[in-house]
Amino acid sequence: MLTKRSNINQIIFRIGLLILLILYLTGLIISTENADFFAQIAIATIFLFSLYCDIKFRIISNERFKDLFLFSFILNFMNIISMQNALIFIILKLISSIMTFILSLTLFSLTIIGGSDGKLIVLIFSIIPVNLFSFSFLMKFFLLLSICFIVVFAINFCTNVIGVNKYSFEILFEFYINVTVFKRIFIKAFYRFFNVADVKEVKNDKFHILAFYLIYNNNTNVFQILAHLRAPLVLVCIISYYITNILKIGI
User: Fold this and answer.
1) pLDDT, tens only, 56-87
2) Which residues pair with 209 in a beta bridge?
3) What is the rounded distance in angstroms from the CA atom of residue 62 to the CA atom of residue 195?
4) Which residue of 29, 41, 103, 238 has the fewest C-beta atoms within 10 A of its own C-beta?
5) Over the range 36-58, which residues count as b (16 or more CB within 10 Å of their CB) and which as e?
6) Within the chain, what is the greatest distance between any pair of CA atoms?
7) Which of 106, 91, 113, 94 is closest to 139 using CA atoms?
8) Could you give the percent of the chain with pLDDT greater than 70?
9) How far apart are the first and last CA of the chain?
10) Residue 82 main-chain phi, psi, to 5 deg
11) What is the H or E stretch that residue 194 is in?
C-alpha cells in the first residue's frame, strides 16, 4: 500500500515538472522575458516542494533530486537550441554551476548545511536564467545564507546556555563527555536536547542522535537525548534567495 502511494506521488510530481517545462517552452517561444518569468515560477515551485519535504521529513529524497536535475537539464537544453550564442550560454552555466558547487561543498564541509540543502542550491542556480545571473548575485546569496545560518545556530546556542536545556548540558559535560571548551561551544550551537518521547514518535531520519546518553532534566521533568539540530534550512535558503533578488532590484 505504501509503495503504491509512493508511486502515485512520484507520477504526480513528474506530471507537475512536465507542466512547468511546457509553460517554460511556451514562454520561450513567445519571448525571453516570458521564459524568464516561468523560470522564476519553476524556482518558486521547487522551493515550496523542498520546504514541504524539509519540514515534514527533514530530507529530500535522491529520487526527487534525480527528477529535478533532469528537469534542469531539459530546461537548459531548450535554452541552448533556441539561442544564437549557445557556446557563451554553456560556458556561463558551467562556471556558475562549478562556483555554486564549490561554495555549497564548503558550507557542507563546515556542517553549516546538509547534503540536501547543497543539492538544492546547485539545482536552483542551474535554473536561473543567464541574463538574470551575476557572480555578485551568487556571492551576495552565499554571504546572506551564511549570516542567516550563523544567526539560527547562535539562537540555538543561547537557548542551550540560558534555557531549559542548560541543566542537561551541565550533566552531559560533567559526567559523560570530556571535551574541550571549543567542542562544547560547537555542540551547544549545532545540537539540542530533545525529549525521548518526541524522538520515538518521529519516522525516517528526522533526528541525528549524537550520543546515546539518557539524561533526566530536573527543570522539565522529562528524559532527554542529544541530537543534531535539524532547523528548516530550506526556509533559510528561500529567504536568502529572495532577499538577494530584492537587493539586486534595489541596486
Assistant:
1) 777 788 889 999 999 999 988 888 887 777 88
2) 227
3) 30
4) 29
5) bebbeebbeebbebbbebbeeeb
6) 70
7) 106
8) 86
9) 53
10) -105, -5
11) strand 191-195
pLDDT score for 203: 47
Q: Which amino acid is at 83?
A: M
Q: Which residues contact 36 (CB under 8 A, 6 or more apart)?
A: 27, 129, 131, 132
218's grid cell: 530536573
3-state class of 179 per DSSP? Answer: coil
Closest alpha carbon to 210 in 243, 177, 249, 245: 177
Record the cell numbers describing residue 152, joined without a space: 539560527
CB 236 within 8 A of CB 197: no
Q: Report whether 149 contacts 104 (CB < 8 A).
A: no
CA 37 to chain centre: 23
Q: Which residues face 215 on adjacent strands?
A: 224
Contact 160, 166 (CB under 8 A): yes
SS3 of residue 212 by DSSP: strand
Amino acid in position 108: F
Max mean pLDDT range (66-75, 123-132, 200-209): 66-75
